[in-house]
Amino acid sequence: MAEPDATTTFPLGRAPRPTTGPELGERVLATIAAETGGRSGGRVSATVDGADIPSLEIDLTGLVVSDARRSSQRTAVHGRERGTVGRLRVEAHPLTVESIPVDLRADAEKVPFSWVEGTDGSLAAELVEPSPEAPLVGTGRVAAPRTAVVAAVERRAAELVAGQGLKLTKLEVDLTSQGPRAVAVAVRAQLRKGILSATATGGARATIDDNLVLTLSDITATSGNPFVAALLAAAKGRLAALEGRRIDLGTQVPAGVHIVDVQLEVGDQLVLTARAG
């Protein structure tokens, strides 16, 4: 028999399916912890009516995600029954990802899914692809402190330059809003190798068009130090490959979910909002 698509299923332990809200809540929290490597925090409020879930509220406040991962286990399907989540809300104020406190809120209505029982006795909820006649309608908002995001970038940059035998002693990242769907990034890095130090600068621009395609442009990386300039020249091919790169944001969500608007705000908080319909 057909196998469930691992990219659109949410494991829920063992069959039979839960018949009460508290039981469903316990299973959802257990899966979130297992799939994200999370620890602490989180609560779920739910109601169950036969195969339907009239309301499902998932509060991930306090959750610390240490090693996000996706279950790869697949099994043949023994049985499948359709259901609908009447009102879904996922929020966190905040949860922590890579040491970044992330404020999250997402709301959706009439979310179709299927209860899927595997031949091995497993149970999962499988997303049913929305259709033009029954689209998924919802909104989402993700926000994080600018300083925390920059600090995370600095940690990652330090790891990258260490691989080149360099030490990152200082990193300045300047983010500038250029409209509701565009942001410019300017970077200035202080590098050290032994007793020698050098400065490298770089920049890029990211824009989202009306078709919700993200494009990277104006990518630069330069240094007045010959040694660092040589390292950057060696990476010129990789940088050139990024110039003009287009990322269709619509393909980054589950099949059938149609994102109709995306907005990006740059201030003390970096805020991304989206609407599906």
From TrEMBL:
Biased composition (Polar residues): 1-10
Superkingdom per UniProt: Bacteria
Region (Disordered): 1-23
Protein name: DUF2993 domain-containing protein
Organism: Cellulomonas edaphi
Taxonomy of the source species: Bacteria, Bacillati, Actinomycetota, Actinomycetes, Micrococcales
